[in-house]
Design goal:
The complex is a heterodimer. By secondary structure, chain A is mainly α. Chain A has one domain: MetI-like fold (Orthogonal Bundle), CATH 1.10.3720. Chain A is built from eleven helices and two strands; from the N terminus they run H-E-E-H-H-H-H-H-H-H-H-H-H. Chain A has a two-stranded antiparallel sheet. In chain A, a hairpin with a 5-residue loop joins strand 1 and strand 2. Chain B is α/β, with parallel strands linked by helices. Chain B folds into two domains: 145 residues, Periplasmic binding protein-like II (D-Maltodextrin-Binding Protein, domain 2, 3-Layer(aba) Sandwich), CATH 3.40.190; 98 residues, Periplasmic binding protein-like II (D-Maltodextrin-Binding Protein, domain 2). Chain B is 38% helix and 22% strand. A five-stranded mixed beta sheet of chain B has the order 9-8-10-7-11, with helices on both faces. In chain B, strands 4-1-5 form a three-stranded parallel beta sheet, with helices on both faces. Chain B has a two-stranded antiparallel ribbon with strand order 2-3. In chain B, strand 8, helix 6 and strand 9 form a beta-alpha-beta unit. In chain B, helix 2 packs across helix 9 and helix 2 packs antiparallel against helix 10. The chains are: A mainly alpha, B alpha/beta.
Chain lengths: 277, 276
């Protein structure tokens, strides 16, 4: 497996002799294009009152500082952490040698993956969580909609992350675990100390993709009237009827967020890469 | 699965803490007006959409809602000594939330229907609205509601409303485009994606107020709908609220609200925004 460092040779690398040469095939033109779009939007916001108004409504500053973005972040990060923990356990269950456990895990994964996210959000927020609340004898009003949306996102992405874990675990060569057993480690120790650490490095790109997908899916939680970014745009355009400005600004904000996240993830992948693997 | 339950329990506790911190306690220290049930300053959570002019909406330049429903509930709570807390909710999910007891009540121009009465309790009707068609200003294709029905006009409206039900009975489901919220239906009308919008006349006035150059109402009223506030079944608020509604109808407060929100002076300050 070629190293991550090799896969993206620095497109602006110093050549022997000291001169810099831009390789037009390797240069990230897509990134330059995206940045140009973002710059155009920034200019529009600076010079058009209509766009300014839309921006401050969707991205309220300064006193209601980043209301919508904060909620989007809480939903993304909170749900992702829970989904990763759940996904780890379900993924391990999936590869378990115990037939019952691995089949239960497979049932969960296949069921969830068959449901559209929007449908699942409604089902969890309006049916499953209220039923759960009455099961544990609590008023369902104790669970705010934002939490319900987060639970829906977590349960949904846990299934996808479980598959990522399974693939990552299975991608570690069998001789690694055999060597571990030969050294006298129990199955659990082999998993914890030998297989999982290597698996996680392989899984980082896929996990990163799921994180970005989750961030975009937080916009669906707006159907529960949770005040994240998309809902802020809907509320504003519902009174002002400035749909064009609202939704262009909204799109660009999402692109900036996902782009930032994506670049952050790439940097992290490079950091943990082991040369030669 | 122990981990999931524990996590959900932790989330639930966290949510309770957040909810408790967000509540300002609601003790107004005041008294109910004479002859009315005293609710002792308790907080009443009122579900609103904030996307239904002029009943509940977010004015330009603000982040909190305003509207007929807000003012009405403030007045009701003055009489009953309670504290209204407005909570945004989706439509028609808000009906389900009230039925489950997640909200004490909801105010969103909700028509009183027998099907809804099966899952929620209603206050007395506080207003009667007429359902009407709204069309593009100057559109000469339709002189009356019957023209709309007889032609192949596409009708825009909101899901889960009596507007949808009436439209379905008049023109059939194939000719209806049902949107999540009314602003989307109105925008579709302005853009020409639908030919008319079926809406309560009170709300129609609100949207025309904001888009005065583009829309007008077709005057034929198609159905009268009484509007009421919804409550969880068996709620102890219904009686007191009915008392308050009766009083506000005769003491001129509802009339004043009508002038404020359904009169010609209704203005969101839209004109102050240059351009468009």
């Amino acid at each position: 497996m070629s190293s991550l460092a090799d896969q993206e040779a620095d497109p602006i690398a110093p050549h022997p002799g000291g001169a810099y040469k831009i390789d037009s095939r390797e240069f990230p033109w897509w990134l330059a294009g995206l940045l140009a779009i973002i710059a155009a939007m920034v200019l529009a916001i600076l010079f058009s009152e209509a766009y300014q108004e839309a921006f401050t409504r969707v991205f309220p500053v300064p006193f209601d500082l980043i209301d919508g973005i904060a909620m989007t972040f809480y939903l993304t990060i909170g749900s992702f952490i829970v989904a990763t923990f759940l996904g780890l356990f379900i993924g391990l269950a999936r590869v378990s040698k115990n037939t019952a456990i691995s089949n239960l895990a497979a049932l969960y994964i296949e069921f969830i993956r068959g449901i559209p996210m929007l449908v699942f959000i409604f089902a969890v927020a309006l049916v499953l969580l209220p039923d759960f609340a009455s099961l544990i004898d609590q008023p369902s009003r104790a669970i705010p909609m934002a939490v319900r949306g987060g639970v829906a996102l977590s349960l949904f992405y846990a299934a996808f992350i479980a598959e990522v874990f399974r693939a990552g675990i299975q991608s570690v060569p069998g001789d690694q675990s055999q060597a571990g057993t030969a050294l006298g480690l129990t199955d659990r120790q082999v998993m914890r100390k030998i297989v999982l650490p290597q698996a996680v490095r392989n899984m980082l790109p896929a996990l990163g993709n799921d994180l970005i997908a989750l961030m975009k899916d937080t916009s669906l939680v707006s159907v529960l009237a949770v005040r994240e970014l998309t809902q802020m745009a809907r509320l504003y355009s519902g009174s002002s009827f400035r749909f064009r400005e609202s939704f262009f600004v909204l799109m660009v904000i999402y692109v900036v967020l996902t782009l930032g996240l994506s670049l952050l993830l790439r940097w992290y992948e490079r950091r943990v890469a082991i040369p030669g693997y | 699965m122990k981990n999931k339950t524990r996590l959900l329990a932790i989330l639930g506790v966290f949510a309770l803490v957040v909810a408790a911190c967000g509540d300002d306690g609601g003790s107004s220290g005041g008294d109910a007006a004479e002859g009315f049930t005293d609710l002792e300053g308790r907080t009443v959570t009122v579900g609103v959409e904030n996307l239904y002019l002029p009943f509940n909406y977010i004015p330009l330049g603000e982040t909190e809602g305003e509207g007929w429903d807000y003012d009405a509930w403030t007045e009701i709570c003055k009489l009953l000594n309670c504290q209204p807390e407005f909570v945004e909710a989706g439509w028609p999910a808000v009906i389900d939330q009230v039925a489950q007891g997640d909200l004490d009540t909801a105010a969103d121009g909700i028509s009183i229907t027998d099907e809804r009465k099966e899952i929620v309790d209603y206050s007395d009707a506080y207003m009667v609205v007429q359902q009407k068609f709204v069309m593009q200003k100057g559109d000469d294709r339709y002189a009356s509601a019957q023209d709309v029905i007889d032609s192949d006009a596409l009708v825009g409206t909101q899901v889960g409303t009596t507007n949808y039900e009436l439209a379905e009975s008049l023109v059939g489901a194939d000719r209806i485009q049902a949107f999540d919220q009314f602003p989307l239906a109105i925008q579709a009308l302005i853009a020409g994606d639908v030919d008319v919008v079926m809406i309560d006349d009170a709300a129609g006035l609100g949207y025309i107020g904001v888009n005065a150059d583009e829309l007008e109402t077709i005057d034929d009223g198609l159905q009268s709908d009484p509007l009421g506030f919804i409550f969880p079944q068996g709620s102890d608020l219904v009686g007191p609220v009915n008392q308050a509604i009766a009083e506000l109808k005769v003491n001129g407060v509802f009339d004043a609200l009508g002038v404020k929100y359904f009169g010609e002076d209704f203005d969101l300050g839209y004109d102050e925004i240059v351009g468009g």
